[in-house]
UniProtKB/TrEMBL annotation:
It catalyses: Hydrolyzes the peptide bond -P2-(S-farnesyl or geranylgeranyl)C-P1'-P2'-P3'-COOH where P1' and P2' are amino acids with aliphatic side chains and P3' is any C-terminal residue. It is found in: Endoplasmic reticulum membrane. The chain crosses the membrane at residues 127-154, 175-197, 203-222, 318-339, 359-383. The active site is at E306, D392. One of its GO terms (molecular function) is metal ion binding. Binds 1 zinc ion per subunit. It comes from Laetiporus sulphureus 93-53. This is CAAX prenyl protease.
Amino acid sequence: MDFLHTQLDVLQKHLAFVAVEPIDWKTYVQVSSWLVCLFEVSYVIRLRQYPLYSKTAPPPVLAAHFTDEVFAKSQAYGRDKAKFSLFEGFFKQTLDSLLVQYGVYAWAWSVAGRSIGILGYGPEYEILQSIAYVIVLFLVSVIPSLPLSVYRTFVLEEKHGFNKTTPVLFVMDLLKGYAVGLVLVPPFLAAFLYIFKWAGDRFVPWLMAFLLAFQLVMVVLYPTVIQPLFNKLSPLAEGELRTRIEALASRLKFPLTHLYEIDGSKRSSHSNAYFYGLPWSKHIVIFDTLIKQSKADEVEAVLAHELGHWYHMHPTKLLLISQAHIFTILGIFPAFLHAPAVLRAFDFPADVATHPPTIVAFLLFQMIVAPFEAVVGVAMNALSRRFEYQADNFACKLRGMLKVEEMADMGDRLGRALITLHQENLSTVWVDWLFSAYHHSHPTLGERLRALEAFKVDESKSSKKEL
């Protein structure tokens, strides 16, 4: 532990300039955030991806799988989503920029202080004021964006036949989401900030342990307590699909505890499947839309892909990588926590900036490192796509792994399932490589189908060698 703290102290010495150099942090945040926005929205979406929606035929690798009607619908859907993304990107960036430029973050801290003052609490109750501060910022940043959510659901998704959400359900979802936030965020934030107060500048390992514990608790809490507030999870009915999935899980020694069907069609006709849980107890959830849209053997192939993620320990690897990322962020943060000049740059009064509130310093720090986080996002997308290929390859190799001849066509089934998913979801089939790198955690359909063909060839060669 002492070695860790020694290395962190060395890092802080290299970052000492943050507290003494007269850096115009507000201008830096404004310029860097607009550059990221312009790169993403104007260049990646507008100049690279948007022209592809004018294509009149699918890529050659997909030509046999898409009718003219389905392709035209997918192009129209993609075009409308791109237009919306253009507007949404500029709207949110403009809103964020106005909040920074006109000192709303400093104003919100003052409002939070006056709010708890009404209840008889003074500025010495920093954690309580910090919770009020987060609530004020939520109101001023999220409420202006509500019309975008309404438009996305009731105009964009409705136009293309996906929306199943009623206005009443939409409002209820919002209220439930806010209620869940009010229940979870204050205690989380209180514990988060208390660790800073208790551990001082040696908070990093303690905060890491707290955040890891919180993530593990949420793995259990979200599907068992939170998600049922929004969706109904029912045991998957007896039949061919359940028999196939349970047999596959048993052969792979996957610790399947529950197999659920979720009423995703209650809100949308989009489809999906996933698993969750702790290492010794896993639960599989399948959207009812996926069950309706695909055959049982194709859904089994989709689940084989998902179990490939489990087999290769992808969730665990991503968790470890996220911990390393969090460690890096927390290791840099103390330099900004003890830098009154940073708060002064964002219009905080001298009495607040002299002793920076932890939550304020952390939120400003997040804005400062945001451009670097965009680069991290691209790297994580690249890693995620690599994991997707591995999971696809796993499905193709099941026959050889399990010595079950009926799984010889698992790759073909997975390919058909992916095609069906893209057809039903009107997914874009013409995708620019830079747009995909920036936005997609999964390879494109064409890339996955080509990879599946290569995996099947390799598996066939391996089978012949065994013979």
